[in-house]
Design a protein that fits this description.
Elements (H helix, E strand, L loop, with lengths): L2 H5 L7 H4 L1 H4 L15 H10 L4 H14 L1 H29 L3 H10 L3 H32 L3 H10 L2 H4 L2 H30 L3 H6 L12 H11 L5 H9 L10 H11 L3 H23 L7 H13 L2 H38 L6 H18 L5 H29 L21 H16 L11 H20 L10 H5 L8 E3 L6 E3 L3 E4 L4 E4 H6 L6 H4 L14
Helix pairs in contact: 4-11, 4-14, 4-15, 5-6, 5-16, 6-13, 6-14, 6-16, 6-20, 7-8, 7-20, 8-9, 8-18, 8-19, 8-20, 9-19, 11-17, 11-18, 13-20, 16-17, 17-18, 18-19, 20-21, 20-22, 21-22
Organism: Heyndrickxia ginsengihumi
GO molecular function, one term: cytosine transmembrane transporter activity
Keywords: Membrane, Transmembrane, Transmembrane helix
Length: 554
């Protein structure tokens, strides 16, 4: 036994980590043995969470602030940008069966460089968890007349059991509740249009608080900047798309359709909901005033009152719809947040107590933000956040499409294992930092008031342009630090064959393993991530150690 191997300690995980249903492969590649869902079920699960009342709140809030015309055009602009940037990301996620964090590592950011994007993504999930929870809490308070702080607590805690068992439970919950949600939404819209013959006219002529009835480039850009904060939603879709089964010739068409619909296709449903929110907001403003026009519960209570007449019945059904919608979307937010925090802390602290622990952490952070009152500053918070978020998505998109496919810079595959990656890749990481700093400076008026509304567009454009520029300047040097695939090919190990991890002793598919000179054997990606005593010797030692990689697998 070598000196290095004597120093290496066998790793043991808690029951929370060793249970694949609870852990849901939060830090690693999703193996073929676990991906038993059909493309159709993955699609239903991925799209099932996109029923957020925040979409109606956004549509209503933007309509009140910027008018109907600018809101509609901003919604359409978001849809186009989501499909352009989200489609290649969704395809890579589904093909490689990895989450957004693992994709980002290999798409120009490096192993530690992607920790920043994990934090950005985690921020996205808890901002929207808090926003959706606040909407749910308001509905609970309005119906049961209990203190708002208590309603927020209930709205947060009720999500934990839904997310505890990961994809296994979420797939059933989202599929079973989707028809009920759809029936109630259609009832509300058809009811308003059929019962109020002036409803469409009230909407199209609604000018909002600023009395804006025509298209304004500045207001359109500002509204779009708020909506662009939704661009990282593709990350939440990726958390489900990673469980897609392998694509075969027989399932190719269904597979592609499911990936597109569950990937960038989320924006179609969200866009429709934003337009509905705009429509309901305008009619609620006429009936109840501007103050109530941006509150989803009030929107639907007003809509159902036209259908059922009875105030109590309308309030009950509206409350049920809000609670159902918010449980569906916040289950997704909490799940994605638990994955993001797992990835973030595993690399920064070399510590992973289990996804369930980070789920509880996500709920606590979201609850604290609710209590602060985030919903009262919705447009401001999202407008600021979008500048950083779109820089990340733009850099990943540019690396996949421009660098890897057009310029052929860097590997054509997505490498996510720590043992094979540089800690930082300036291609994506540098592009995002530069784009974020300049766009935030624009957002705060450093370059003049005229450019301020366009800060999010500047962020996206800069990230897309800088990514290939930096890749050309660095010649793709910082994508791959080493490659230990020879260890497996020399031993004739097939792609989905499972072998034992030399660190923890569990068996994993070869795609999730790398050769480790510290342990002198195959190590799984999670053990590799959590190892703090090796000091990355695999990437710093002399090339003579490559001879070890030719040893036989025991």
């Amino acid at each position: 036994m070598s000196a290095t191997k004597k120093k290496a300690q066998k790793r043991q995980y808690s029951n929370l980590v060793n249970n694949p249903v609870l852990e849901d492969y939060s830090l690693r590649y999703a193996p073929k043995s676990f991906r038993k869902w059909s493309p159709w079920m993955v699609f239903l699960t991925g799209i099932g969470g996109n029923v957020a009342m925040a979409s109606y709140a956004l549509g209503g809030s933007l309509t009140v602030s910027f008018g109907v015309i600018n809101t509609v055009w901003a919604t359409l602009c978001l849809a186009v940008l989501v499909f352009i940037t989200g489609t290649p990301i969704a395809m890579e996620i589904a093909k490689n069966n990895i989450d957004m964090d693992l994709l980002t590592r290999g798409a120009g950011f490096g192993y530690l460089g992607s920790t920043l994007t994990s934090l950005i993504y985690a921020s996205f999930t808890f901002i929207y968890f808090a926003l959706e929870g606040a909407i749910m809490g308001q509905a609970i308070t309005d119906f049961f007349h209990i203190p708002l702080w208590l309603s927020y607590l209930i709205a947060a805690l009720v999500i934990i059991p839904l997310v505890l068992f990961g994809m296994t439970a979420l797939s059933k919950f989202q599929a079973w509740t989707q028809p009920i949600w759809l029936i109630l939404i259609v009832t509300a819209i058809v009811g308003v249009i059929s019962q109020d013959k002036t409803a469409m006219s009230s909407w199209t002529h609604f000018t909002g608080s600023n009395h804006t009835g025509s298209f304004s480039p500045v207001l359109f850009a500002t509204a779009t900047g708020v909506l662009l904060s939704l661009l990282p939603q593709i990350g939440e879709q990726a958390d489900f798309l990673r469980f897609m089964p392998d694509k075969t010739e027989k399932t190719k068409k269904v597979w592609m359709l499911a990936v597109i619909c569950a990937g960038p296709g989320w924006v179609i449903l969200a866009g429709i909901q934003q337009i509905i929110g705009s429509f309901l907001s305008a009619n609620t403003a006429v009936a109840l005033g501007l103050q109530k026009a941006t509150i989803p519960a009030a929107m639907f209570e007003n809509a159902f009152s036209m259908v059922f007449g009875s105030p109590l019945t309308s309030l009950t059904i509206a409350t049920f719809l809000v609670l159902l919608s918010q449980m569906k979307i916040n289950a997704t937010n909490a799940y994605s947040g638990s994955l993001s925090w797992s990835n973030f802390f595993s690399r920064t602290l070399h510590f992973h107590p289990g996804r369930v622990i980070w789920l509880i952490f996500q709920v606590i952070v979201g609850l604290l933000i609710m209590e602060v009152g985030i919903i009262d500053a919705l447009n401001t918070v999202l407008g600021f956040y979008s500048n950083v978020a779109v820089a990340w998505i733009g850099a990943v998109f540019a690396d996949i499409i421009i660098n890897k496919r057009i310029l052929k810079i860097g590997p054509t595959y997505i490498e996510f294992k720590r043992a094979h990656l540089y800690n930082f890749n300036p291609v994506g990481f540098g592009s995002m930092i530069i784009a974020s700093v300049l766009s935030l400076a624009t957002y705060f008026g450093v370059f003049g008031a005229g450019l301020k509304p366009y800060s999010a567009f500047i962020s996206l454009l800069l990230a897309i342009v800088l990514t290939p520029v930096i890749a050309i300047l660095t010649r793709g040097k910082y994508y791959i630090a080493r490659d230990s695939s020879a260890y497996f090919s020399n031993n004739n190990v097939k792609q989905h064959h499972e072998i034992k991890c030399v660190s923890c002793g569990n068996h994993y598919e070869t795609h999730d393993l790398a050769f480790c000179p510290f342990y002198e054997g195959a190590i799984c990606s999670m053990c590799c991530s959590l190892e703090s005593t090796c000091h990355d010797m695999c990437k710093t030692q002399d090339q003579e150690d490559k001879s070890i990689e030719k040893k036989q697998i025991s």
